[in-house]
Design brief:
- The structure is a homodimer.
- Chain A is of the alpha/beta class and about 400 residues long.
- Chain A has 12 helices and 10 strands.
- Chain A has a 10-stranded mixed beta sheet with strand order 2-1-3-5-4-9-10-8-6-7, with helices on both faces.
- In chain A, strand 9 and strand 10 form a beta hairpin.
- In chain A, helix 8 packs across helix 9.
- The longest helix of chain A has 27 residues.
Chain lengths: ~400, ~400
């Protein structure tokens, strides 16, 4: 088990480092895990990546169900990990607490908001780690750090004891360095062990591939070919029918309004000092009016119907996880917080809007940087995705 | 039991009139009740006072818990009652379905939004009736129709199977012609039978009395004196410390945003034809931005703390239920939907903001019209209020 003082990655919280032994028996016995600092651990404060949040919230009394399931299954918890500020970021850079190391590219950001969890797993400080994913906070750091990450189906993993952020998009997800462990953790968290049926059809999300530079799409082609070897020839599909811009904008508004409805009252009362990305987005979300939000929710309902009509049981949709490898640390705000972020969210919003499971597989590289290929299944296909990930990377 | 075709009051829904026999035994055996058309009755559609809502919603499968409790206690349900349009009104006039008779003053409105329930009880078509009260929809019609009505403590009566409207203010309330039955229904709905402790102190809400015309305050003085005979001399208290305008504005914004968040997506998609009052308020609520709403929520939290500091266990606060007797039917919109409404909400918002129980007692008159005196208790004092109401009016 990691000691309190060792943290060369800067991945763990400094305000508290709870170490909880597992039950001593179970499918995860002997494995260590880290937990993003948005999950409650009884007796400790939850920091949410914000010094003011930490100051204004006392110790909690209940440990999140997801953490308890992992302890019950025998895994040992080695600490709480950093998160981006209030989890409202994809960069991995926290102006208050610093940037955990991206072990795959030390001059690069690890991605966020589950930055510490991704860093800890990629750097070997934990075998696996819990994160959360609303807009991409597990999937993008998995791609940047060259590890496996999954965003499960909405409502499949309990969120009690997790700070509410942006429902209906919030999920608890997890990272691992190999797909076997990613699947084993899934069996515990999803409480599902039976062997899933094999996927029947591979879809290639052409609008998602068209949304990234040709050299990124090209770098992923070999990975897609390996999925085809396992599942069969891919069928091209334009999930958003050329309207991925509209999908992104719909996601952005519904998510922003939800985040503000969860955090706005606290922000109004406490007036925390915010870093540039979180400040920009929260100011924007605060200004959304009810008419705009209701229209986006109606659009969201129509998008869900489209997704359900296209992505059927047995289907797997392949898309790039990210439009790029991990950006350099200290990239200018206009690039990393606006341009890169918006490009990434054109891809990440698809599973979010559909409430779908998505696994990011470290199966490609660009300029020596890891690049994830994502597979998205219909709701409930989590174990199917995990089994396929294991098969593809065995 | 009332027959399907008799409804001289115009209080019952015409789209369906479910009659459900009680269990045949229990404390309410032999009593009849009516149910506002926002509670779900298995096998029927719920109309919500809107033709388009009725058209766009199919029959439901579960009956609301509150209704089931009453049936289990032996009461017979005799029908569903009209509600104001989408329940977002206090007048009792529904542009689509008409205005149920106010039996205490047939040229006057019955008040709303639980207009049909108040009318049915006041006119003897049911012994008691269920309504809902977010901003005053039980209390105001109780005052206008000269009957008893209670808004219980928030979260005390289950709201499953009730159309969500404006949480955290929504409650299920009820009407009766005598306080003994009001209390007996309370024992069933609140699932509380033990005799409550007697109230220890009467408070007179001076800012609330100052907010109504002197002749209205004067008309209630004899009723206050009767409460003093039972509880002891009243102590004057300015609950809002001269800021009842601010309390009203805070309530109005938090309520409007909540209602829009529940109804906005449907309104955006369906574009129903709305009457002038609902249209005006929904247009306003749709335009509220997140910053305004968060500030009002922070103010609401401060107001709750003030209420908890002033209104202590054993206290009863007396205020006017309404600033006037029931207005004439077809009163101009600017008066009934804006001026009268805003005046009433200066009084009605107090219990709403505090999540407090409030009972309106038909103990006064003005110009031959009924006028309710209200007693408000701290959270959980519901049975105490009901026992006092019975004692005062025995």
């Amino acid at each position: 088990m990691a000691s309190r003082i060792e943290d060369p990655l800067g991945a763990f919280c400094t305000h508290s480092r709870p170490e909880l032994p597992g039950s001593g028996a179970g499918s995860l016995q002997g494995r260590t895990f880290a937990v993003k600092d948005v999950f409650h651990i009884a007796g400790y404060r939850t920091g949410f990546g914000s010094p003011e949040w930490l100051e204004t919230h006392g110790p909690v009394t209940e440990t999140a169900s997801a953490v308890r399931r992992l302890l019950d299954a025998g895994a040992d918890m080695v600490g709480k990990t950093l998160t981006d500020e209030l989890a409202y970021s994809l960069t991995g850079e926290n102006v208050h607490y610093g940037t955990p190391v991206n072990p795959a590219a030390p001059d690069r950001v690890p991605g966020g908001s589950s930055n510490g969890s991704a860093s800890a797993v990629a750097g070997g400080a934990a075998d696996f780690a819990l994160g959360t994913d609303c807009g991409g906070s597990v999937r993008l750091p998995a791609s940047y750090c060259g590890i496996f990450g999954i965003r499960p189906t909405v409502d499949r993993v309990p969120l009690d004891g997790v700070i509410p952020f942006g429902p209906p998009f919030d999920v608890a997800g997890w990272f691992a360095r190999d797909a076997g462990l990613l699947e084993a953790v899934g069996q515990v968290l999803l409480d599902e062990t039976g062997p899933p049926p094999a996927p029947r059809r591979l879809l290639r999300g052409v609008d998602a591939f068209d949304a990234v530079e040709p050299r990124i799409a090209g770098a992923l082609e070999r990975a897609v070919a390996r999925v085809e070897d396992a599942v069969g020839p891919a069928v091209d599909v334009s999930m958003a029918e050329g309207r991925l811009d509209h999908w992104f904008e719909t996601f952005r508004i519904v998510q922003g309004a939800s985040i503000w409805s969860n955090l706005g009252e606290w922000i109004t009362a406490v007036r925390p000092r915010l870093g540039p990305g979180a400040k920009m987005r929260l100011d924007w979300a605060a200004g959304l009016d009810g008419r705009t939000v209701a229209a986006a929710k109606a659009d969201h309902a129509a998008i869900r119907r489209r997704i359900e009509a296209v992505l059927r049981e047995g289907d797997m949709l392949a898309i790039p996880t990210s439009p790029r490898g991990a950006p350099l640390k200290n990239t200018p705000v206009d690039d990393i917080e606006i341009r890169f972020r918006n490009q990434a969210m054109h891809l990440l919003c698809i599973a979010g809007l559909g409430g779908l499971p998505q696994v990011s597989l470290p199966m490609a590289e660009i300029d020596g940087l890891p690049l994830g290929l994502s597979l998205i299944g219909p709701r409930g296909a989590d174990m199917q995705l995990l089994a396929l990930a294991r098969k593809l990377t065995a």
